Structure formats: structure tokens, C-alpha cells
């Protein structure tokens, strides 16, 4: 009787609480998200007013709003450059190579780490693989130059000890793109594996036990249980990667490339940096950035639509 009375008293209070606005009902969660929201607004959305520079003859003394409107002139200049088609091609090729080679690498590493049973060894490997994510490309570029130097690099020392001629890796057009791809994979593979490891830890262990009883080995369990269980995570990260298809890695390329490999290594960002900022053409650089963002947005929407038609949740 007492329990029924207490429940009757609590029910109106619970229903009243449930009817409150979500901002009041979950105020503590929104308060925790507030710093990230402020950061996003201040550093991501507020600076977006600067895209109008792409349509103005920007003058530092006159400011953004008082500079003269020139319409699509910078876009016409950008597409009129003789080197722009080559730059677009390089950007797409490098991005696609990184996508094909680098995107599956964290998945494979996460699956391998998930199979380890020695926790100390597992954590040690995980730590060693994700530490490079925090190293600047300037440092990694210096390491690459030292390792691949034709005169003093350890790689060429080994090649010479085998009786071969030294290879100018960073000046070879055939090798330069692959150096970009594998150095990027080495830097980011451990960081990306963290996300997939978290998804793998959420799989019900009873599924693996049932598969073991049915006689399935580890490879079959990975193929039929692990991969399907993290498919949604893979799709979301793939969609985000496609949205950045025209971001081939400005800092990486800028640190590693040189005039001898401009034909294969010059991407949109580095080309605009040289041609635009080098001559103080801020409107031209802004037009190139806006072009990249528009193409990335279109690719993201198309990929998300395709994913939803294939039965996945997608990003939106």
C-alpha cells in the first residue's frame, strides 16, 4: 500500500519532468557541450564571412566590406591558369591513392589488435602506433629527408651496400606520390585504429562464443561478425573522408616537395599558396578554397545519398 502511494506521488512529478523542454531536462549535458559549441561557432562559423573576399577586389586598408565587388573574376582567373588542370589531377590522384591505401589500414590494424590477448603488449603497440599522429609534418618531413637522402640517408646507404646506385626518392616523380601516401598512412594509422577498436569492443561477446561452438575459426569470425558489426562506423568515416577528397595534405606536400616534382606533387593548396599568397592575391586563394569546399560538399551529399540507398544510416 505504501509502495503504491509513493508511486502515485512520484508519477505526476516524473510526468511533469518529462514534459519539460529538452534544454531544461538535459541541462547538464548541454552545459558540457557548451565549450565545444562556442569553439565551433567562434573558429568555424564566424570566419566564414571572409568568403566574400572571393568576390571582391580585396584591399587590406579598405577591409572586407568596403572593398570593390568584382563578381566571379577570380574564379575565371583560377580556371584559366594553364597549370590548374594538372593541379586538380594531382590533388585527386594523391587523395584517391591515400583513400585506397590508407583508409583500410586502420581497420586492419584494429582487427589485429583486437585479436591480441596480452593486454600489456596490445597497449604498447597501440601507443607506439598512434604517437606519430601528434608529430608535426615539419618534423616528419625532416625525418624523411634524412632517411631518404641520396648521400647520407640510411635507406640509400643500405641500397649502396647491396651494390646499387642511390635513389633520389624525393626528386623522383614515380616515387614521390607513394612517399606521400605511405608517410601519411604511417602517421595516421594508429589514431584511426582507436575509433575502430572502440567499435569492436561494443560487439556482444556471446556472438563469438556461439561462432566458436559452431566451429568457426578466427578468420571467419572476423569476416562474419567483426566486420559487419563495425560496418556503420566504416561507412561514416568513409563519407567524411570523401568529403575531404580535395584535401590532399597541404602541410605534408609543402614540407616534402620541391620544384623537380611539381608536375606530380603540386596540389591545389600548394599551388594557390605559391601563386596566390606569394603575390598577395588573397581573393584568388579564397576563391580556390571556396571551390574546394563546394566540390567537397557535393561529393559528401552524393556519397551520403548512396549510403542511405544501400541501407546505411549515413551522416544526415
UniProtKB/TrEMBL annotation:
Residue ranges crossing the lipid bilayer per the database entry: 26-46, 92-113, 134-155, 175-201, 222-242, 282-303
Ranges of residues in domain ABC transmembrane type-1: 88-303
Main location: membrane
Coiled coil start-end: none
Subcellular localization: Cell membrane
Lipid bilayer topology: Multi-pass membrane protein
Domain of life: Bacteria
InterPro entries, alphabetized: MetI-like, MetI-like_sf, UgpAE/MalFG_permease
Keywords, in A-Z order: Cell membrane, Membrane, Transmembrane, Transmembrane helix, Transport
Annotated family: Belongs to the binding-protein-dependent transport system permease family.
Protein name: ABC transporter permease
Phylogenetic lineage: Bacteria, Bacillati, Bacillota, Bacilli, Bacillales
